[in-house]
Please model this.
Amino acid sequence: MFTRKILGALLQASLLGLTLAQDTKKKGEINRDNGPVAYQPSIAGNVIFGILYVVLGIAFSYYIHVHRSRWAICLPAGAIASAVGFFLRCAFDADDLQLSLFIASTICVVASPSAFLAFNYMLYGRFITAIDPKFGNTTANASTITLAEDGTKQPKGSLREPSKFSFIPPLIVGRIFIISDILTFIVQVTAGGMQSQAGDDNSELTNIADKLFLAAVCAQGISYCLFTLLLTVALIRLVADRTSNKSRALESGIFGLGKQTTLIACGFYISSLFIILRSVYRILEYTQGHQGFLMSHEVYLFVLDAAPLILAIGIWAFIWPTILLDRIAIETRALQSNQPNTSSVHHNNNSRSDWVPLV
Model:
């Protein structure tokens, strides 16, 4: 299962970072003057954000259990990892820092955005296959799988099957962007290990680590911007398709997209807005360097990193997308078959959304 491979790769990268940044300095040798933390972390602030992440992790786990959305496991895993990272920060003593504790916390906080991005990438493939009524119909000997308990079935497309709405085959979009994020994550963890090990007594190693971190966050930000462009092109093509053929337009939603499709599209853009905001912050932070203003003031970590990510994934707690995917697929294929009363189709909120390959 590709989702398990993602989590395995992130775990291996985290262990690599721990290995590269072993605690070779004794306790008491690292303080706010020569260590990686230039401030005393706020216990209240870190506890608040840790609790928020725990609440979201529990909510996502509940949705996954009820709706059997196993492909989305990366979302609660990332939320819980972030919570652990913020809780560990409460134990920091900037004047007497345990480097191993700092490394473990940093890895947890750094790992979570990759998991959140992975969720959006995998959701994109499922979204495209739901809105494209012809997807899977061109695959020879395609196997059929049930969309919902009303008996609606649709063939499953091949991995490289194109869609008229996506200029990249939808089922490989997740793989492409997730592999890119895993590579940038490994670089970030490696740079973090070098950065922690260097301190102020090895400025050359610190500068190299800062440049590696900057390159990684820039690559991750550019990658997600390209994904957002891919999503925008898909929605423009969908709107054009619906407006050019009134028989395929729905009365609800924007531009005849239907309520369910509009909700997921809005969720994508709200999530993407805050993810990109966080990426810009990280780029500016590492452009300034390890001793820069942003990195030396914790408030910006809360306001421009933790809060945007909370909002970026929190939107899915209100509109869990797998509930909507089956409905979108049923409506789309009903319109394709010229069935006039699509609103009369009985939807099952507990139906499986695993009708699309995991990525």
